[in-house]
Write a structure and sequence with these properties.
2 copies of one chain form a homodimer. Chain A has 162 residues and is mainly α. The first copy, chain A, has 7 helices and 3 strands. In chain A, strand 2 and strand 3 form a beta hairpin. In chain A, helix 2 crosses helix 6 and helix 3 crosses helix 6. Chain A is globular and about 55 Å long. At the A-B interface, helix 1, helix 2, helix 3, helix 6 and helix 7 of A face helix 1, helix 2, helix 5 and helix 6 of B. Chain A binds a DNA duplex (30 and 30 nucleotides) through helix 5.
Chain lengths: 162, 162
DNA sequence: ACATTACTATTGAGTACGCAAGCAACTGTA
DNA sequence: TACAGTTGCTTGCGTACTCAATAGTAATGT
């Protein structure tokens, strides 16, 4: 019967709903803490972190957008905010005048270190209070495979080594 | 010598990053399909589904908000849209005149069935193309536990000694 | 050289939220 | 009856995005 749809739950749907709920719950809590403690969103933090890890602490906007899963315009506006606070600056590219590098400033690096001090602890607490280490390994491995199938590798030669 | 924090990756942080990326990737794709096919967001769909499953196809807004993880104002505005399309209607409550039930209309039920026809298939495809059934069970079980710990009264600062 | 195509970044318009404030209605206490 | 506190819902304002359109630059074909 067609109305079956309304009461039946496939394991895929169940997984999807769990994913949405888990994400919403986790990001809401962690984002709120990060905002209160440091005035940064998770995306802000992520951008600062990617820049910190990039060679010469700078990246093209396009690559940044790809890594943090924002659109080009999203990155423009996010960086506007970070520039206003002095955490990142602009830099021209010698070989291609279309590109505008986003460069992490010293203030930005300081801010990132401060934010990391609490944010990483909060993430750890959030997850370790819910899962055993072996479960975390399992979870990360499973979730990490979501993008495989149509996504790119997301390595721009700037990935961390540890 | 930049700080250790910048290069260190705990399994918790890794899990969190995977969660964010997985969610973003999955919802972006599924939401786009749902929007194109039926003009509904995932939240819209979820609300229609919850109403369809509720006794008398109606719920209080507060309870709805809690189930789909929106705030009170978020639910008000989401329902505004669904009311405008005639998929849900308002109904007074006899015993408490503050509450305004959201009721699924026949049009809403029809819409939900139509949307389910494609949406569920797309979710299934998204997940089964990436995971084995046993992995899906594992994933759903793990993710489902995220909210446990403060699921019912999830106000912040709840990191007590429990 | 010049036209065509592709890429990078920004801007304008619009959407989907959240938070804080507010009103109305309920509950408990006396 | 009164009235303080709580709950359900809405509204104003702000934010963080998206998509579509645009301008400027680069690469490619002829």
């Amino acid at each position: 019967m067609t109305s079956q749809v309304l009461s039946e739950q496939s394991i895929s749907v169940e997984s999807f709903v769990s994913l949405v709920r888990a994400y919403t719950h986790a990001t809401r809590e962690l984002n709120a803490q990060l905002t209160v403690d440091h005035g940064l969103t998770i995306s802000d933090y992520e951008v600062l972190l990617r820049l910190a890890r990039a060679p010469e602490r700078r990246m093209r906007r396009v690559d940044l957008a790809q890594q943090v899963l924002l659109t080009a315009s999203g990155i423009t506006r996010l960086l506007d905010g970070l520039e206003k606070h002095g955490y990142v600056a602009r830099a021209a590219c010698d070989s291609d005048r279309r590109v505008v590098y986003a460069v992490l400033t010293d203030d930005g690096a300081t801010k990132l270190r401060e934010a990391s001090a609490t944010h990483v602890v909060q993430i750890e607490h959030y997850f370790t209070s819910r899962y055993e280490p072996s479960e975390l390994t399992e979870l990360a491995a499973l979730l990490g495979r979501i993008e495989i199938g149509d996504a790119l590798d997301c390595t721009e030669g700037a990935e961390d080594s540890a």
